[in-house]
Amino acid sequence: MTSWPDQVQAASSVAGVFVAIAGFFFVSYQIRQINKDTRAGAHTNIFSHSLETIRLMFDNPKIREYLYDGKTLSDGDPNFDQVMLACEMFGDLYEHVSLQGENLPKESMECWDKAIADRYERSPVLQGYLESRRHVYAQALFDSVERGKKYLAARVAELPQAQAAPLPARNPPPNQANPTPSGRTSRESIGVAAREI
């Protein structure tokens, strides 16, 4: 039979193992929580930054066509300074996103890569701006562009041969009927909705 001190020592050893295991699970849980908080913070910061660029486009619609519609920019263009500022904002946003890649879910980062590559390809002004300042932007931004181009190329290969429908005009003439999914024009839908109230 073992002595009382030996039994206490054995019980202490077993209890120590249980405490160590519980501590491991607690630390593991805390690390997962920190990772969640980091990801949430990355999303919040990126979307706040993105909102700033959207607000710039909203407040200055005349520069949108340079970044979204492929319009070229000449040195004498009256919008030159605003367009260059917008390019810098987009470049900074896209660099921010690309540097946060490890804090974003894979699916989210793939979407950002595609969006960055799409904007880069569709805007000669943004493309020229970024290429002329490659030395001040992180390589991660240009890696994101390349990944996005590959994702987009793969996506295009998967699509049927029919082309996508063009986007609607930004400012359709006031007398042009805009049919809704129900087949009514927007004015008819408003009238129906008003009668239902």
The secondary-structure class comes to mainly alpha
The total strand number stands at 0
Radius of gyration: 28 Å
Mean pLDDT: 78
User: Major sheet: size, sense and barrel closure?
Assistant: none
Unreliable stretches: 172-197
Shape: elongated
* Helix share, percent: over 70%
N- to C-terminal distance: 89 Å
Question: How many DSSP H or I helices?
Answer: 7
| Share in β-strands | under 5%
User: What's the helix-strand series?
Assistant: HHHHHHH
Q: Care to give the gist of this entry?
A:
The protein is mostly helical. Helices cover 70% and strands 0% of the residues.
Task: Explain what you see.
This protein is mostly helical. The protein is 70% helix and 0% strand. It has helices at residues 4-59, 64-68, 80-99, 106-122, 124-132, 139-158, 186-196. Helix 1 (4-59) runs antiparallel to helix 3, helix 3 crosses helix 6 (139-158) and helix 4 (106-122) packs across helix 6 (139-158).
Summary tags:
197 residues; disordered C terminus; 70% helix; 7 helices
What are the SSEs and their pairings?
Blueprint: H1 4-59, H2 64-68, H3 80-99, H4 106-122, H5 124-132, H6 139-158, H7 186-196
